[in-house]
């Protein structure tokens, strides 16, 4: 289908506005998210140059055809990109074209055409999460002998109890805690700088009160978890938090076979959500806890019966024949079996 021919300059102007104004300012996305969209567009530009012979200065919205996008998907597949990666690239292109069509209505047809390209089917894999004994072992990995160990222990407890993303945990400040409320909670700042309140368990509140007395005696506004540098508190990076978790898992793995070889912060988040789900917590509550914008995101990950859950359910539902008289030995059943009725 032919649409109005657009200048290459139109593409570059809108692309810059999309990445530098719309995404970070209007949609309030994080630098990491904006970079992911930027990389997806760069990969498509690379495809246009290598496979279609269209150099950057010649790229226009005419380069975004249904046929080109389908060839782009095939090109990514041949490069052994996963279905998830391919779909992320396609999502980024669609988002850019949607924004562009809202800025210039004559581009609406191009956006609609690209939306008709189907995403690659992703293989659904079972969620990897920790068993209760592994969770307990990891959360107890650090003793209370040193201040650093006490900080690490508190950090891992908060990571699990809140189901926070590692960046959300790193961003916590003293003011994020609301421990004097009737129902104590912590405010997490998630994707798009959107905040959500997550309730805290009574045990976690008790741990926090002890932690605050030692690490924040004056209760000044500072990062909740920090390391001292030149005598001043500096916020821990996400890499530092990940390393604390990895060290904890490595430490307890020798005595707890349930701890997998690779333990990462997002696994703790999944474990918290799955523990809630297995204990009958409704999905809308889990959705709010995780900070998912769409229910489909939550249900796609957690609303299914795991092999363990199905096995438990089947065992509970199965009659215990060992404790009861065999069915065919009962008098009523004998009469029915040995009769012509």
Account of the protein in words:
With 341 residues, this protein is mainly α. Helices cover 55% and strands 6% of the residues. The protein is built from 15 helices and 5 strands. Strands 1-2-3 form a 3-stranded antiparallel beta sheet, with no helix packed on it. Strands 4-5 form a two-stranded antiparallel ribbon. A hairpin with a 6-residue loop joins strand 1 (177-178) and strand 2. Helix 4 packs antiparallel against helix 5 (108-115) and helix 7 crosses helix 11. The longest helix is centred in the N-terminal third of the chain and has 21 residues, at 31-51. It is globular and about 65 Å long.
Q: What structural category arises from helix and sheet content?
A: mainly alpha
Estimated radius of gyration: 27 Å
Give start-end ranges of low-pLDDT stretches. Answer: 1-5
- Helical region count? 15
Shape: globular
Average residue-wise pLDDT: 86
Strand order of the largest sheet: 1-2-3
How many β strands by DSSP?
Answer: 5
* Terminal-residue CA separation: 74 Å
Helix content: 55-70%
Biggest sheet details: 3 strands, antiparallel
- Strand-residue proportion: 5-15%
Topology (elements, then pairings):
Blueprint: H1 8-26, H2 31-51, H3 66-78, H4 83-103, H5 108-115, H6 132-139, H7 147-162, H8 166-170, E1 177-178, E2 185-189, E3 195-199, H9 202-215, E4 226-229, E5 232-235, H10 238-253, H11 265-278, H12 283-290, H13 295-302, H14 307-317, H15 331-337
Antiparallel strand pairs: 1-2, 2-3, 4-5
């Amino acid at each position: 289908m032919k649409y109005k021919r657009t200048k290459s300059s139109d593409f570059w102007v809108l692309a810059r506005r999309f990445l530098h104004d719309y995404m970070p300012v209007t949609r309030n996305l994080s630098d990491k998210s904006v970079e992911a969209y930027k990389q997806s567009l760069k990969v498509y530009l690379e495809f246009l140059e290598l496979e279609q012979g269209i150099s950057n200065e010649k790229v226009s919205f005419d380069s975004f055809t249904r046929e080109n996008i389908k060839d782009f998907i095939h090109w990514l597949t041949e490069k052994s990109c996963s279905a998830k990666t391919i779909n992320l690239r396609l999502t980024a292109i669609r988002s850019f074209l949607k924004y562009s069509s809202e800025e210039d209505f004559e581009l609406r047809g191009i956006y609609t055409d690209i939306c008709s390209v189907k995403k690659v089917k992703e293989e659904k894999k079972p969620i990897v999460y920790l068993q209760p004994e592994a969770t307990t072992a990891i959360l107890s990995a650090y003793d209370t002998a040193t201040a650093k160990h006490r900080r690490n222990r508190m950090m891992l407890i908060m990571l699990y109890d809140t189901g926070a993303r590692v960046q959300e945990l790193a961003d916590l400040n003293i003011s994020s805690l609301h421990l004097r409320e009737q129902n104590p909670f912590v405010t997490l700042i998630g994707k798009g700088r959107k905040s959500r309140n997550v309730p805290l368990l009574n045990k976690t509140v008790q741990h926090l009160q002890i932690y605050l007395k030692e690490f924040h005696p004056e209760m000044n506004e500072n990062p909740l978890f920090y390391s001292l540098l030149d005598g001043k508190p500096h916020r821990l990076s996400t890499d530092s938090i990940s390393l604390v978790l990895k060290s904890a898992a490595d430490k307890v793995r020798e005595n707890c076979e349930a701890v997998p070889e690779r333990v990462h912060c997002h696994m703790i988040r999944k474990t918290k959500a799955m523990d809630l789900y297995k204990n009958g917590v409704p999905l809308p509550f889990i959705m709010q806890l995780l900070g998912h914008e769409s229910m489909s995101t939550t249900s796609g990950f957690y609303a299914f019966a795991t092999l363990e859950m199905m096995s438990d359910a089947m065992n509970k539902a199965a009659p215990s024949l060992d404790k009861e008289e065999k069915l065919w030995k009962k008098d009523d059943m004998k009469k029915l079996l040995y009769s012509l009725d």
